[in-house]
């Protein structure tokens, strides 16, 4: 069993101020695979103090030197990517091939995107011949990350923050902390100055709240549930710090009558990817009535042919969900769906042959209406709800009738319709016809899906303040 109790503070691995062991569970087996310690106020204070002490020097470090260290980090990350893949597969249940390609690859992708954006990023601009506009690092940043895409979210926060000149305290999810611990090793090996990057493990009620309310923290960047995002915002309010949130989603995937023949299959596969544990998953499939029956059949076929297996096995399957808490929540919502709608694939319990581990059957509900629980709540499991519609206007109304607004999807061969509908969907992202987003594209949502943007130039700007300086040059 792995023992990872230490925190990374001020350039050193240090023991927690007060032992508070927490078991890390392998979701494929339900067995303990590691132990960490949850931090206390003294640990949080020490990490914030280290970041505060390092800020002045780091914020004045030339940009080219900061970029050089990020490039070194990228090299270390690449050299040790197999370790990272194994850590994420063990802690949160991503199948090892998916962990190598997608989970690890997300970190590589975003690091490259930030390095590309930094090459041309303007930290100073002439507003008038005598006035200068400066973009300066906001200060000490608390970065609170989730368990579902560990490296995606850690890289999306740590790299732009430190590249902008901020210093940081990272609190990864206590449910999946091994990847964060390994990332701290990468930062140390890359040679960042002491105090620039710090890591303290803890839960939301403890270290999460302590960071959010800390008077010496200038900004909190959080990815996770909407419920937790609200709690963080309230905790941060007394100190008026900036809060950047990337929260939940309930994406609508609109399948028009002229959608390509693979649209339904593509949407169902996307919904089940990562065992449904993605905030941008297209979990509501809105299908034109002319294609509805065929779509239900296709989606059910995808679910029935999606293999579920342990994360340690190679191959193109989905693994378990992350924890017993998540498993029980998903089972409860599937049970609710069986009372509300028509079950056409999957259902309650584990898939056949899997008697231990947090495995969920890929599940499809048909004849769903948008007022049902399964259409309103973010299930965060491999569960798809199919809703029929008749007109473009009705589809837009259904898609927008949600508290969330992260990612919506549009499938049609009519270019004008695709653009018209995309403009009217109330979400931070609209993916059309299966076309993925470019490197550095802004990731974030509307409404209760949050208020921040991550990735590329947009992600760097999140960690900057804007300063106007008059009389920069003589008149």
Automatic annotation (TrEMBL):
Pfam families: Aldedh
Reaction catalyzed: an aldehyde + NAD(+) + H2O = a carboxylate + NADH + 2 H(+)
TM regions (residue ranges): none
SUPFAM superfamilies xrefs: ALDH-like
Listed Gene3D superfamilies: Aldehyde Dehydrogenase, Chain A, domain 1, Aldehyde Dehydrogenase, Chain A, domain 2
Record keywords, A-Z: Oxidoreductase
Stretches assigned to the Aldehyde dehydrogenase domain: 13-469
EC supergroup of this enzyme: oxidoreductase
Domain of life the protein comes from: Bacteria
EC number(s) from the headed UniProt entry: 1.2.1.3
Homology family: Belongs to the aldehyde dehydrogenase family.
PANTHER family: ALDEHYDE DEHYDROGENASE, ALDEHYDE DEHYDROGENASE-RELATED
Name used for this protein in its record: aldehyde dehydrogenase (NAD(+))
Organism, as annotated: Sulfitobacter sediminis
Taxonomic path: Bacteria, Pseudomonadati, Pseudomonadota, Alphaproteobacteria, Rhodobacterales
């Amino acid at each position: 069993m792995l023992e990872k109790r230490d925190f990374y503070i001020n350039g050193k691995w240090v023991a927690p101020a007060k032992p508070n062991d927490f078991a890390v569970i392998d979701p494929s087996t339900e067995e303990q695979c590691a132990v960490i310690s949850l931090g206390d106020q003294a640990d949080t204070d020490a990490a914030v103090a280290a970041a505060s002490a390092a800020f002045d020097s780091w914020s004045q470090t030339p940009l080219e030197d900061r970029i050089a260290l990020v490039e070194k980090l990228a090299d270390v990350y690449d050299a040790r990517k197999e370790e990272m893949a194994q850590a994420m597969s063990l802690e949160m249940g991503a199948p090892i091939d998916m962990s190598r390609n997608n989970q690890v690859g997300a970190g590589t992708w975003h690091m490259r995107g930030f390095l590309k954006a930094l090459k041309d990023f303007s930290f100073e601009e002439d507003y008038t011949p005598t006035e200068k506009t400066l973009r300066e690092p906001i200060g000490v940043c608390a970065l609170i990350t989730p368990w579902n895409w560990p490296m995606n979210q850690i890289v999306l926060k740590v790299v732009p923050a430190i590249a902008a000149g901020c210093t940081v305290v990272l609190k990864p999810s206590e449910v999946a902390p091994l990847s964060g611990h390994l990332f701290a090793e990468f930062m140390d090996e890359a040679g960042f100055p002491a105090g620039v990057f710090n890591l303290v493990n803890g839960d939301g009620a403890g270290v999460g709240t302590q960071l959010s309310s800390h008077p010496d923290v200038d900004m909190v960047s959080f990815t996770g549930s909407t419920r937790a995002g609200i709690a963080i915002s309230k905790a941060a309010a007394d100190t008026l710090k900036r809060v950047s949130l990337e929260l939940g989603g309930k994406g609508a995937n609109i399948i028009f009558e002229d959608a390509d023949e693979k649209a339904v299959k593509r949407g169902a596969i996307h919904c089940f990817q990562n065992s449904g544990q993605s905030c941008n998953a297209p979990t509501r499939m809105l299908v034109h009535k002319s294609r509805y029956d065929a779509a239900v059949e296709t989606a059910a076929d995808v679910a029935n042919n999606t293999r579920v297996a342990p994360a340690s096995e190679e191959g193109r399957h989905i693994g378990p969900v992350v924890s017993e808490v998540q498993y029980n929540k998903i089972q409860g919502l599937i049970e609710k769906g069986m009372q509300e709608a028509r079950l056409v694939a999957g259902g309650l319990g584990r898939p056949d042959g899997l008697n231990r581990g947090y495995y969920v059957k890929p599940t499809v509900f048909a004849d769903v209406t948008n007022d049902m629980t399964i259409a309103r709540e973010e299930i965060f499991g491999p569960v798809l709800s199919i809703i029929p519609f008749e007109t473009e206007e009705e589809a837009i109304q259904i898609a927008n009738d949600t508290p969330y607004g992260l990612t919506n999807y549009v499938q049609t061969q009519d270019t004008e319709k695709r653009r018209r509908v995309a403009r009217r969907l109330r979400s931070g992202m609209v993916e059309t016809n299966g076309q993925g987003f470019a490197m550095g594209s802004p990731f974030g949502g509307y409404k209760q899906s949050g208020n921040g943007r991550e990735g590329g130039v947009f992600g760097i700007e999140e960690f900057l303040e804007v300063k106007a300086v008059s009389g920069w040059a003589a008149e």
